[in-house]
Structures are given as structure tokens and as C-alpha cells.
Amino acid sequence: MSDFRKQSEVETIDQAIGESSKLSRWIEHKEGKSPMTRPQIVSQMRLLVDKVMGEAALYAPAFAADAIQLSGGSDQEAVVMVRAFRETLERKYESETIDTRDISVLRRISSAFREIPGGQILGPTRDYTQRLLETHIAYEEEVDIEAFLSEVTEMMDLQTDNDKPLTIGKVSDLLRKEGLLRPVEEEEDRSLFDVTRKPLEFPAPRSAALQTLASGETGGIMALAYSAMRGYGGDHPTIGELRYGRTKVVITDRLGRKRTFGRIEFTESENISKIKVKKKDPVPYMSMGYGLCFGHNETKAICMGILDRSMRIPGDHAPAVSQEYVLHHVDGAAAFGSVNSSVLPGQVELGSELNLIRQSIERKMEKKEKATS
Question: How many Cβ atoms are within 10 Å of 54's Cβ, its own excluded?
Fold first, then answer.
């Protein structure tokens, strides 16, 4: 530790910053010298990787894993790194519209109905297990993991091709056929708006709101959605359908040929909510809130759906209802930058304020002395 000196002992600010960065990395590696590989992070920290990709708005598991490793596991730092990298990339194509009915299903459930078209598919989840801390994993060796994988592989149906796209009808399609879902209002703004190219304007179209939520910080979105569920937004939905799966992304090249550009995993949630019926409506309806994000992040997709519905409630009586409040405060990278900028040097501003206060105190003391004399 003697090699890392105080800033006042260092010749330049740049040298001090370099030594500080080295110290940070030294702390991360001093106990465990074996580096984590990129495939290990992508596989064993998949939910964290998915969270970083979603909030950075860039589907790149390898780069998200690199950012997580460089940031020492800080998801906020990793998001800032990946976002900055995203801005250096050239955009050459626009993908075809993806129909989320045609996906390789990994998980699909509905809490609204017991039986749904295609059946319930529990998939990878810990929802039905006890959240108990299992300390034995700290002592697992490769042979133990290989034995576990072999055991589970034998239990699985190896004839099932998980990469084969399936067309499964949606619960929302059935509700629309029965006339139970409220139709899209003619005055609703359905234009496409790219929030990475243009600044937000209010009222924002629904496409801009959903994009902002999709790249928002999961914890911030969850806090606002929870407030809506508790009554500060008027939306406590039932999950009509939650999907997690894999689908291909198709682009049209310069010669007009359609090409499969790659595959992405995503989570989609369609929430069903009650709505207040206007007197002019002949029959009551249900309303739907929608959420979709990169990777496996069910909490975010569900909370997106809650806020999507809440922001379409008339009025401005709660934070979750205010479109401007929600969209300006769920951007985790912006919040992270603003909050952490407070650790940067601010001696000039604070010094001037302190001088003003000192002068005020001196004047007050002078007045007090004159009054007593």
C-alpha cells in the first residue's frame, strides 16, 4: 500500500488517477488471482448480464460481461461503459418487425388463467422454491458440477429442439376476440420514436415511453410500479401472459435480400387491468399494460407493463401516473452520473458559499457588539 501515495505527493492529477485505478483493480484481485473468463460471466451471471444489456440498450452479452468484470461487479458502472461503447457503433440496418408469437419458448406462464393455448411452461425459475442460502456451493468442484449436469441432462427430453420456433397464440388474442380488451383509441399517438436519436418531448408517444422504460434501471422502475400497485397510480394488474424466449432478428441487406442477422433472448409481459368505465361506454372493458426487455428480466417486464398502464391514466395525481416524472427518473445511467458527480472536486462552489456565510456571521457579530456597547 506504500506505493499508492496521497494526491498531494503525486506530480500530476493524471498520475493520481492512474494510481487510484490500479488500486481499485488490486483490491479486486488480491484475494483471488484466477481471472473470471467471459463465458463464465455470461453463463453463471446471466441475469446480471441481461440486466446490463437491457439498461445499456445494446444486445451484446460478451461486452456486457467485459464491463461487469472491469467494473468489479457494479451494474451501474457496467451500464455506463456499455452505453458509451454503444454510441461509437455505426447503425447500418433496421430490423424487420418481430412477431413475439413466433419464438423458441423457454418459459411461458399465465397467472390469469389455469389453461392457456400451448400450455403453461415453467422453464428456468426459482419462483416455486424456498429462497434459502446454500453455502455448500462455495466448496463445489468441477467434478460436482459435471455430475449435476449429467443428472439433469438425463431427466430432460433430449428430443425437444429448444431452438425450433413455435407459433403460440396469445392470451390477449383470445380476450380481443371476445371483446373484453379495450380497443386502441383513435387519438392515441402510435408513431415510432427513437429515443437514442432524439430527446424526449412530452407528451411522449407510447413507443418512446416503452423504449425509455426498456432501458431504464430495474430497481427504479420496480419502485415506481410498486407505488402504483399500492394505490399511487391505480394499477394492480394480473399477469395475462409472461414469455421468455429466443427469436431471430431479420434485416434486409442492400440488395433487398432478407437475412437472419442473429438471435436475441427477451422477456415479454402482458398485464391485464380493470379500468374505470365512462358513462358513454356501452360495455365495460379490461385494459392491457405491455412490457418487453432484453434477456431474462421478468421483474422489469412486469413493472414496465404496470407503468405503461399507469401513465395512460388521465390526470397527474401520483408519480407513477406522470409521464414526465416516470421517464425522467428511471434512467439509471443518468441518475448514477448525477449522484456520483458529487464526489468530484467542488471546492470553488463550496468555498464561495462558505465565504458568504462567514461574512454574514461577521456582520451579525459586529451589529451585536455595537448594540451591547
Answer: 27
Tens-place pLDDT, residues 249-279: 999 888 889 998 889 999 999 999 877 766 6
Q: How many CB atoms lie within 10 A of CB 308?
A: 23
Instruction: Tell whether 348 is covered by a domain.
Output: no
Q: All 3 cell numbers of residue 203?
A: 407528451
Rounded distance, CA 318 to CA 326, Å? 10
Amino acid at 218: T
As beta bridge partners, residue 263 has 248
Inform me whether the pLDDT recorded for 232 exceeds 90.
no
Q: Are strands 166-167 and 102-109 parallel, antiparallel or unpaired?
A: antiparallel
Contacts with 335 (C-beta within 8 Å, 6 or more apart), sequence order = 217, 220, 329
Burial class (CB in 10 A: 0-12, 13-18, 19+), 295: buried
In degrees and rounded to multiples of 5, residue 261 shows phi and psi of: -80, -30
pTM: 0.83
The CA-based dihedral angle spanning residues 350, 356, 357, 362, taken in that order and rounded to the nearest 10 degrees: 140
Closest to 120 (Cα-Cα) out of 270, 243, 246? 243
Burial of 305: CB neighbours in 10 Å, binned 0-12, 13-18, 19+: buried
Q: What is the pLDDT of residues 77-107, one digit of tens each?
A: 999 999 999 999 988 888 888 888 888 888 9
Burial 208-231 (b: 16+ CB within 10 A, else e): bbbbbbbbbbbbbbbebbebbbee
Q: How far apart are CA 192 and CA 207, in angstroms?
A: 6
Pairing of strands 102-109, 286-294: unpaired
Measured CA to CA in angstroms, residue 176 lies from 71, 203, 284 at distances of: 46, 27, 13
Give residue for cell 451500464: 79
Number of domains in the chain: 2
Give the range of the structural domain holding residue 293, as residue numbers without chain letter. Answer: 102-329
Grid coordinates belonging to 297: 428480466
CB-based contact 347:353 (threshold 8 Å): no
61/119 same-domain check? no
69 shares a domain with 111: no
Radius of gyration in angstroms for the set of CA atoms belonging to the chain, rounded to a whole number: 26
